[in-house]
UniProtKB/TrEMBL annotation:
PANTHER family linked: FRUCTOSE-BISPHOSPHATE ALDOLASE
Similarity remark: Belongs to the class I fructose-bisphosphate aldolase family.
Stretches assigned to coiled coil: none
Keyword Ribonucleoprotein: no
Protein name: Fructose-bisphosphate aldolase
PROSITE patterns xref list: ALDOLASE_CLASS_I (PS00158)
SUPFAM superfamilies cross-referenced by the UniProt entry: Aldolase
Pathways involved: Carbohydrate degradation; glycolysis; D-glyceraldehyde 3-phosphate and glycerone phosphate from D-glucose: step 4/4
Keywords annotated in UniProt: Glycolysis, Lyase, Schiff base
Keyword Lyase: yes
Organism: Gadus morhua
GO terms assigned for molecular function: fructose-bisphosphate aldolase activity
Record-listed E.C. numbers: 4.1.2.13
Biological classification of the source: Eukaryota, Metazoa, Chordata, Craniata, Vertebrata
Pfam families, per the entry: Glycolytic
Length: 367
């Protein structure tokens, strides 16, 4: 039998696992600032701000330069391609700024979902062509981890076996390419998102989540992916958005941790949940309950939030320069709440911020 991971040296494996552990150090999670230009357009529309490259730069600069109170909260920041090459007002490249603050720079590398032929409206994710070269360039330009999102839907007929297998294999191919990049590789975040659309109950989401994660980890094993140098970005196990029954945070936590325990190897250093359209406050409450769950949890269980860290900040900013401080205060507040939630220490005060209690659900969310 050949050795496991024959393509990675001991030094490469150590570097990959060190990066992954740094991102999910106790109390830390990820700021997902990798919304595509189209997604930003929708967000800016909601606050009557013009979607220009300069406005996108100004807004992200506010998040990236928030004061030192965020230092214990954010381990990594995911960039969109454009953002990786933008600079602060005084000419410093954003990746340099992030690294100087002790955070790890990440990059979204997939090229969006596309229809999967032979299925009932299901999708796969494109972007594998030229991925090795792109990752090598991103590594050179300061990125140490990457993110790739696959999307599955729950309906009467889906997800199909075909969609589950195809998306698992795409995620595994992406992950193995990331780790193979010369000069010590890039840590892949594996994101198989099961959308919250639908009226299915909690048990159905749990069942599907387990099937999907089991397939993903089988594919990662088949593709010789070094699990200690990866992170998982899954959905929390919640009922469909239109489900009439409401479940408690404790029920969501038990279903989520049970699904992970059945499928995710303890070798994986961390699970960084997406917020999946939950309100900012609900995303913190559920993450906190997950970290208080009485079941054993061998991984760091933390956050990789976009909307659930930014909705109130964006609203407070409103596209106006004079609101910069207010924007940063809202972002810092959410970051601190999730720092506590990732340690099971968050107590909701009922102070929901500018958008804290608003549902952030978007049907068929693409970005």
């Amino acid at each position: 039998m050949p050795h496991a991971y024959p393509f990675l040296s001991t030094e490469q494996k150590k570097e990959l696992s060190d990066i992954a552990k740094k991102i999910v150090a106790p109390g830390k999670g990820i700021l997902a600032a990798d919304e595509s230009t189209g997604s930003v357009a929708k967000r800016f529309q909601g606050i009557n701000a013009e979607n220009t490259e300069e406005n996108r730069r100004l807004y992200r600069q506010l998040l990236f330069t928030a004061d030192d109170r965020v230092a214990p909260c954010i381990g990594g920041v995911i960039f969109f391609h454009e953002t990786l090459y933008q600079k602060t007002d005084d000419g410093k490249l954003f990746p340099q700024l992030i690294r100087e603050r002790g955070q790890v720079v990440g990059i979204k590398v997939d090229k969006g979902v596309m229809p999967l032929a032979g299925t009932d409206g299901e999708t796969t994710t494109q972007g594998l062509d030229g991925l090795y070269e792109r990752c090598a360039q991103y590594k050179k330009d300061g990125a140490d981890f990457a993110k790739w999102r696959c999307v599955l839907k729950i309906t009467e007929n889906t997800p199909s076996e075909l969609a589950i297998m195809e998306n698992a294999n795409v995620l595994a191919r992406y992950a193995s390419i990331c780790q193979m990049v010369r000069h010590h590789g890039i840590v892949p975040i594996v994101e198989p998102e099961i959308l919250p659309d639908g009226d299915h109950d909690l048990q159905r989401t749990q069942y599907v989540t387990e099937k999907v994660l089991a397939a993903v980890y089988k594919a990662l094993s088949d593709h010789h992916v070094y699990l200690e140098g990866t992170l998982l970005k899954p959905n929390m196990v919640t009922a469909g958005h239109s489900c009439t029954r409401k479940y408690s945070a404790q029920e969501v936590a038990m279903a989520t941790v049970t699904a992970l325990r059945r499928t995710v190897p303890p070798a994986v250093p961390g699970v960084t949940f997406l917020s999946g359209g939950q309100s900012e406050e609900q995303a913190s409450i559920n993450l906190n309950a997950i970290n208080q769950c009485p079941l054993g949890r061998p991984w760091a269980l933390t956050f990789s939030y976009g909307r659930a860290l930014q909705a109130s900040a964006l609203k407070a900013w409103g596209g106006k320069k004079e609101n910069g401080k207010a924007c940063q205060e809202e972002y810092i507040k959410r970051a601190l709440n999730n720092n506590l939630a990732s340690q099971g220490k968050y107590v909701s005060s009922g102070d929901k911020g500018a958008a804290g209690g608003e549902s952030l659900y978007v049907a068929n969310h693409a970005y």
